[in-house]
Write a structure and sequence with these properties.
This protein is an alpha+beta fold and 430 residues long. 67% of the residues lie in helices and 13% in strands. It has 2 domains: 8-75 and 119-278 and 316-426, Outer membrane efflux proteins (OEP) (Up-down Bundle), CATH 1.20.1600.10; 77-116 and 279-315, Outer membrane efflux proteins (OEP), CATH 2.20.200. The chain is built from 9 helices and 6 strands. The chain starts with 7 loop residues before the first helix and ends with a helix.
């Protein structure tokens, strides 16, 4: 049986093609990578400053200050000027009854109205505005918390791509170094040309994987820039995120829980305001100016007047009771949402902590596996350089080493994502 082999010329031609395509892919994967470093804090700061929701919430909070000033102005005296010129002619005995119209009327008055509001009523209305502002402030905090979680998650995804790219760079550097030595041993007849070409194919596959990771990194980086409101098409270097675990996890201290406490106080204030709404209302009024029918000595019709206006509700179809009942329904709904949230919070936190412990254990095992596979690769390489091991065994060991490194990168990314989710749940109100 005749043994199949490649001529030296054909071997060199195939080698050059593989080497050239490998170099092109390797160079393209580094094209346009700037030396600009970006941190997680940079993206968090940019996102908080650029997104319009931040301005929206800030303006809402400021508007409650304006509402408070409007309420204060409403409690003070209201001054209005009024003027009226009225003429009702009687022609040939036809016209409005002069007894009723005095044939005309001229009025120019300045009136003052002062509502009489109890201190308890005014305090409760100010408290309602404060609680509405507090509720908006809670919404702002929840939005900031969710934005931090989302930006961090996208940053971690992009950084995971970057770490894997670095892993492939290290592997390709090692393979390229070994490729030179194996070429000489193949030419000397220590290894078959087909085994050497298989080695080159593996190197090319790793280079293709590196190029694919570069494209994925670009896509994830673009998504990160988009959510932060950044226009940046350059490739940048993402630094390792510094994620500290927030150890405080009491549900009652969580920012997510505080909104229920604010809503409870707001409902109590609204319930008190119903009682104030249906109490008697007293207004003081006064006016001064000119009021004349122009019939008798109009030059003397300057004067002033004043008085009290009292409104006492007697019957309104039971509206007060109905509004109190509506408030009770809102409070029952609030309690139901609070209780359901508490169960969900504890469940999610317990699940995330369990996953974190399992991931930590898996990371330790993966690190041990990586150490073993790396030792095996080094041992095979030493045997390979002396011709005592097959290229196939070496490539198998190298493949196990690459898989272990990828698994380590994935588990590390998973751990960061779990920490990010836990910090979102555990963030307390500042």
């Amino acid at each position: 049986m005749q043994r199949w082999y490649l001529s030296n010329r054909m071997f060199l031609r195939l080698y050059r093609r593989l080497f050239f395509s490998q170099c092109v892919l390797f160079v393209l994967s580094f094209t346009a990578i700037a030396q600009t470093n970006r941190t997680l804090d940079y993206y968090l700061t940019e996102a908080a400053a650029r997104t319009p929701q931040a301005l929206d919430y800030a303006n809402r909070i400021l508007s409650y200050g304006l509402d408070s000033a409007k309420l204060r102005a409403g409690f003070g005296p209201q001054v209005n000027g009024t003027g009226n010129l009225f003429y009702a002619p009687v022609i040939n005995g036809i016209g409005y009854d002069p007894i009723l119209t005095n044939n005309g009327n001229v009025t120019a008055l300045v009136g003052v109205t002062q509502p009489v509001v109890s201190k308890a009523n005014s305090r409760n209305q100010y408290e309602l505005l404060r609680l509405q502002s507090e509720s908006t402030n809670d919404s702002l905090g929840l939005w900031q918390q969710a934005l931090r979680r989302d930006v961090t998650a996208m940053y971690l995804t992009a950084y995971g791509d970057w770490v894997q790219m670095l892993y492939y760079d290290t592997t390709l550097t090692l393979l390229n170094q070994e490729q030179t030595a194996l070429r000489g041993m193949t030419q000397s007849g220590t290894y078959k040309q087909t085994d050497y070409l298989n080695f080159n194919i593996i190197v090319q596959q790793q280079t293709l994987q590196r190029a694919q990771l570069t494209r994925q990194y670009r896509a994830d980086l673009a998504a990160l820039n988009a959510v932060c409101g950044l226009y940046d098409t350059n490739m940048v270097v993402l630094e390792s995120p510094r994620l500290a675990m927030d150890s405080s996890y009491a549900v009652s201290r969580s920012l997510l829980y505080h909104r229920f406490a604010t809503d409870s106080l707001r409902l109590l204030a609204e319930d008190r305001q119903i009682d104030f709404t249906y109490r008697p209302k007293l207004n003081l009024f006064a006016d001064a100016g000119y009021n004349s029918s122009l019939q008798v000595e109009p030059q003397k019709n300057f004067g002033a007047s004043g008085g009290l206006n009292l409104t006492v509700p007697i019957y309104n179809g039971g509206l007060k009771k109905l509004e109190h009942e509506k408030t009770k329904l809102n409070e029952a709904t609030r309690k139901a949402y609070r209780n359901f949230f508490t169960v969900q919070y504890e469940q999610q936190r317990a699940q995330l902590e369990q996953e974190l412990k399992a991931t930590d254990a898996l990371l330790r095992q993966t690190q041990q596996q990586l150490t073993y596979t790396q030792t095996l690769v080094q041992a095979h390489y030493k045997l390979l350089t002396t011709g005592d091991a097959s290229i196939t065994d070496y490539l198998l060991a190298m493949n196990n080493y690459i898989n272990a490194k990828n698994l380590l990168a994935q588990n590390t990314l998973n751990r960061w994502q779990l920490v990010n989710s836990l910090n979102y749940l555990n963030q307390t109100r500042r």
